[in-house]
Amino acid sequence: MRHPLHRASLLSLPVKILLTVVPLLLATPRSAFSYADPGSGAFLYQAAYAAFLGGAFYARKLLNRFFGKTKAEAAPDAGAEISRAQASDELG
Length: 92
Description:
With 92 residues, this protein is an all-alpha fold. It has helices at residues 13-27, 38-67, 71-91.
């Protein structure tokens, strides 16, 4: 014999959703009045611009990590630049 509270677990998912959502909808106000400052649009534009630039720098760093030169490869090139500069100073 089943327990009488076992019927509660037989409620279908849509009924559970309705029992959760309907009270929340009834508790919210019907109309909300707000004020949008003229600077609000500029703030949103600035936030989007900063997010884009931050993402671009992060992507560049990530790509350099996979495809960039390692420190061992970069060191001889830096030394070659110094020796070229010294050679040009000695010649001229």
